[in-house]
Design a protein that fits this description.
Largest sheet: 4 strands, mixed
Helix content: 25-40%
Strand content: 15-25%
Shape: globular
CATH architecture: Roll
Structural class: alpha+beta
Bound molecules: protoporphyrin IX containing FE
């Protein structure tokens, strides 16, 4: 059956940032897909701190500046939460 992806706005994404985050779940966006990177934090070769720089926001630019050769789509399989939509898109 068709299971629609969960739609996530920038403001919901922002509640999963490095600070003032009650849930302690850290989300980021890569090419429009929202990922919960929490399970991956201890395994990142670049360290947790670097990952947390993109928590709660779009990480695509920084990711591609650092290591464009890394296959994030494969690595974060199973960590996908949904897709990013604009606040306006959400009202439709
Ligand atoms: C290294 C994955 C996000 C900074 C790496 C490596 C992987 C990886 C697999 C090893 C690459 C190699 O040796 O060729 C990821 C994933 C990310 C992510 C899946 C997204 C969820 C970021 C972000 C930064 C960052 C946002 C911020 C600048 C680094 C650095 C290294 C590294 C500095 C080099 C570590 C070293 O070799 O000493 N990352 N990364 N990464 N990553 Fe990330």
């Amino acid at each position: 059956p068709f299971v629609p992806l969960r739609r996530i706005t920038p403001s919901e994404l922002a509640t999963h940032g490095a600070r003032k985050n009650e849930s302690k779940l850290y989300w980021t966006v890569l090419e429009g897909k929202v990922y919960d990177m929490t399970p991956y934090l201890p395994y990142h070769p670049g360290g947790e701190k670097e990952l947390l720089r993109v928590a709660g926001k779009d990480g695509t630019k920084l990711f591609n500046l650092t290591h464009p050769w890394v296959n994030w789509d494969n690595m974060l399989r199973g960590c996908e939460v949904g897709i990013l939509v604009s606040e306006n898109e959400m009202l439709k």
